[in-house]
Amino acid sequence: MAEPEAAAEDLDALIHDLDYLPGHFHLEMQLNFEPRSPASLHARDLKLQRDGLRQELVLAAATQRPAVRHLLGAFAFYLEELDEARESFLEVAREDPGNLNAWANLAHVYGRLGQKEEEEACAGRLAGLMGLAGDRGAAGDPSLRAARCLAEQGYAHGFDMGCARPEERARVLEAGIELYDKALGHAQQIPKEEKRGWYFTMATLFIRLDGILLELGSKEQKRLPAFNRTLALLRQVLKSSEPHHQALAWCYLGMLLERKDTFSITPMGIHDCGFSGTDPLDCFGKAIEIAKDQPPILNHLAKIFHFLGKQDMAIGTCNMALDILRDPELNWQAYCTRAKIHVRAYLHDLERSKMGLGGMPDRNHLACAKADLEEVVKVCPGLKTYLDIGQCFLRSPPKETACPRILDSGPASRGAQL
């Protein structure tokens, strides 16, 4: 193999001829641009997004974990936690020495650390894996490495942050989908189950994109091709052996079937994929059935139902998760989601009362929310959780003093997120 410095120069000279560029720090995502918000707020948002990613890592299939770890490393990098960023990328490289993004990202981190020798070594390793080092290159299928590199980059676009307008967010999602399409062009040797994981993420990006197009009032002709393709992707994901993907695929299918009424004519993809007689509620029911003994998946479904405005279904799913695992340290997500549902129910009834459409809202919702949050704060104390409890006190003042320990709480923790 060529010397590291020569390999780095070779990489710079030849990389532009490729249809992809490994690494995450060059991607045209808002994450890689100058933040628009003040530094303190940007750091807070990065930490919250990172906490969400850590939850994703728990549910992610083994083949998808490198994509999650790359993003965790990128967030750590922008939080100036360079040692943690390096460890995230090194963990990927240790598990898969042929991972292109790992070596590209490591080179970037070492460059920031001023460790020139390590940076050049990583660039040389990357050049060898890509066949750019002037020798026969590394063993293994280069197309397979390229496919996974592109898929990991596409995954990252689903977690971008800082977009100011829906149009910007749509462009980021479209870029992620395009990267997955390029990955599929290299994916002849990718195992079926791994490819279904890609289909799942693609479907997720398409559904978010369709939601933005609906928000923008786009014409149905613009939405229709992607809508039909999403149905086809979900049909493949339903064959997955991963319960997480299978359950969420049924949930997403129910969402799409509910959206069919936003078209003047039923989209042909519904007929082509064999979903003509499928009821959305049946889809949601199948999702819950698959996840019935797995609290992490139930919690994910509960968040989606809450987002869709299906509060009874959401709180029922939270209760299922808590019936299986009541320990707030291990299942704090269910407590937090259920508290959020109760608060929204109270605020909804309050707005109706102000408009003269109903009586006074039931303050028991706030009491239930406070009780759930207090379970969380016992094991995961954090400022955000104390503030949320304080809001419950303010809206429904109890006899005792509200949150006397609020000033003693430490940094917002994982349990602080609502």
From TrEMBL:
InterPro entries according to UniProt: TPR-like_helical_dom_sf (IPR011990), TPR_rpt (IPR019734), TTC22 (IPR042342)
Organism: Physeter macrocephalus (Sperm whale)
Domain of life according to the entry: Eukaryota
One Pfam family this sequence matches: TPR_8
Name this polypeptide is given: Tetratricopeptide repeat protein 22 isoform X3
SMART domains (alphabetical): TPR
